[in-house]
Amino acid sequence: MCNVRDFSPWFAQPGALAFEHRRAAMPFRNSLPLSQEAIQPAWHNLCEQVLAPNKRLVYLHIPFCATQCKFCGFYQNKFQADEAARYASYLYQEIELEAASPLHQSAPIHAVYFGGGTPTALAANDLYTLIRRLKASLPLAPDCEITIEGRILNFDDERIDACLDAGANRFSIGIQTFDSRVRKRMARTANQEQAIAFLKNLCRRDRAAVVCDLIFGLPGQTAESWQKDLEIVKEIGLDGVDLYALNLLPQTPLAKAMENERVTLPDVVQRRDFYLQGAECLEAFGWRQLSNSHWASTTRERNLYNLLIKQGADCLALGAGAGGNLDGQAWMNKRSLEDYYAALEKNEKPIAMMTAATHTPWRHQLQGGIERGRLDLHELTPYAAQLQPLIDQWHESGLLRDRSLCLRLTNGGRFWANNLLQALGEILPGLQPAETK
Questions:
Q1: Which of 51, 96, 261, 434 has the least C-beta neighbours within 10 A?
Q2: Is 143 helix (H, G, I), strand (E, B) or coil?
Q3: In this structure, how many other beta carbons lie within 10 angstroms of the beta carbon of residue 75?
């Protein structure tokens, strides 16, 4: 007789509230840090290597914002033009410090992502020069996706054209909502009419994919206002859209207002309803779902960086506070601007923390599959059949389309995707050959 493992701790509840809390998830990284003394030698060792074939990305961080949005937990430095120009000069130095190494020249780069902060706060000349330096210094693939993340504030025609002329081919604009009332409460500076006009101006150039982020679960948001947001996205003619649940980080102004009972937020069931409404609406529009949070309306939109990072692609990181990963070894650059500058003055990679290498490809397969909404458990473990009771229960709870061990998530399952990811991440390492007697 075979021993049957008890999977009930990971069962979903029937109805809309499948789990008590909706989990948040970041790409898997090893958490065992190297000593400070070991970091620079480990980095130099990496730079001399030609790694095993793997998709490769570049992330470049711009840690400045003109204002702090009330929901945002990533605010670091208030934008000042002279400081941003100084920062750009050190970014050039970081690129030149390492770009010629065997590591950096050994594999094509499939996606570059300028994130922040607000990359579009940089001066037009610095945006142009940074993109051109990357293209001249690193082996970008011919079809490399080059994304500039930004917001409406300060992203004028001069900056837009500088990005396009330098070779950017994708813009990701943080809109969050078009509702002027909610935007004002979240300290967004532009109203609905200005946001729409900006995106239409960007789309009219027809030289790059244009996508925007929308957030559901904001204070004051309703099913009607959310539906209007979705319809505006379609009417503008964007190439893609992200639908993100509000992730309330404790240090944000919005979280503090919540603690002091100055605002109320939709609960997890209401957020689920927003997600289902969005997914069903975009499907009715004929948009393709590329991941749990991203939809495309055109073939121009690929969402490469976000998909590949979840699948365990190597990522070269540049800039203060940027995080990277190479061959299972992760690092984070110094967040303080002065510490970042001081390291580069000494011709050192400005790394604050680095982990030991770990190789767990199954975790990246798991994460990438769940993100795409399709995961073949047989590819992760020879003991997949042991999971059948859990899969049956998730199917009965409306999270999976059928009982197959090649999981296909429903829209409800995609809302709870991080819970399924965490459950399988805990279960799979403990699966063993079934005992018989």
A1: 261
A2: strand
A3: 18
Cβ-contact 213, 172 below 8 angstroms: yes
Q: Are 130 and 122 in contact (CB under 8 A)?
A: yes
The residue behind tokens 């945006």 is: 127
**Tokens at residue 349, please?**
């990679």
In DSSP notation, 371-437 reads HHTEEEGGGT-TTGGGGHHHHHHHHHTTSBSSS-SEEEB-HHHHHTHHHHHHHHHHHGGG--PPP--
Q: Residues 404, 410, 413, 414: is their CA dihedral positive or negative?
A: positive
Residues 6+ apart with CB under 8 A from 121: 62, 64, 65, 66, 79, 84, 150, 153, 154
432: Cα separation from own chain's centroid: 34
Q: What does the block give as tokens for 403? A: 């009982």
Strand pairing category for 351-354 and 329-333: antiparallel
Considering only CA atoms, which of 186, 195, 202 is closest in space to residue 228? 195
Residue range 79-132, pLDDT digits in tens: 899 999 999 999 999 999 999 999 999 999 999 999 999 999 999 999 999 999
Average pLDDT value for residue range 270-292? 98
Locate tokens 């749990």: which residue? 292
Q: Which of 293, 323, 311 is nearest to 379 (CA)?
A: 311
DSSP letter (8 states) at residue 10: G
Structure confidence at residue 189 as a pLDDT band (50, 70, 90):
confident
pLDDT in tens, 347-373: 999 999 999 998 889 999 999 999 999
Tokens 């790409």 label which residue? 27
* CB neighbour list of residue 72: distance below 8 Å, 6 or more residues apart: 65, 252
Rg (CA), the chain: 22
pTM here is 0.95
Check residue 242 and give left, alpha or beta (phi > 0: left; psi -120 to 50: alpha): beta
Residue 299, both tokens: 């073939």
Helix (H, G, I), strand (E, B) or coil at 326: strand
Return phi, psi of residue 182, to 5°.
-70, -40
For residue 437, name the pLDDT band (cuts at 50, 70, 90). very low
